[in-house]
Design goal:
The strands form 2 sheets. The chain has a two-stranded antiparallel sheet with strand order 1-2. The protein has helices spanning 23-41, 50-57, 61-69, 99-124, and strands at residues 3-6, 13-16, 83-84, 91-92. A hairpin with a 6-residue loop joins strand 3 and strand 4 (91-92). Helix content is 47%, strand content 9%. Helix 1 (23-41) crosses helix 2.
Length: 131
């Protein structure tokens, strides 16, 4: 059963089934996608960056970045469609963070896990004394 929700883009009330936006905003988004895809599908425009695509089509950069992140526009087909890493701002074509930030986060999590395990071991140690 569908639940009532406010559209994430315009705030209208709609029956949320699959998408987080209303049908009107979804149709607008699909038109923007078609505009972007038609532009970059042309051989002369395949090397365009997100900024260049945005300027040529009038579609906001955030929307184009979302299309790339969702996999609707593949970075393998359009190599210059890169966006900034959420952590450091380095240009990437997949995921949310660059390899350096990903590895740093992974190291920090491993260090935290070792610390937690060490604390748990220390809490389990029991000393017995005779009375």
């Amino acid at each position: 059963m569908a639940e009532l929700a406010n559209c994430a883009q315009c705030g209208r009330l709609f029956a949320k089934v699959v998408r987080s936006v209303c049908d009107v905003c979804y149709q607008e988004e699909e038109k923007m996608f078609e505009t972007v895809y038609k532009f970059i599908r042309k051989k002369a425009n395949r090397e365009a960056s997100i900024i260049e695509v945005s300027q040529a089509t009038g579609v906001p950069e955030k929307t184009i970045i979302r299309f790339v992140r969702e996999g609707r526009l593949r970075a393998s087909q359009f190599p210059n469609l890169t966006f900034p890493c959420d952590s450091c701002g380095k240009q990437i074509s997949t995921g949310r963070t660059c390899d350096d930030c990903h590895n740093q986060l992974k190291k920090e999590l491993e260090t935290h896990d070792r610390f937690v395990q060490k604390q748990q071991v220390n809490e389990r140690i029991t000393y017995y004394t005779e009375k």
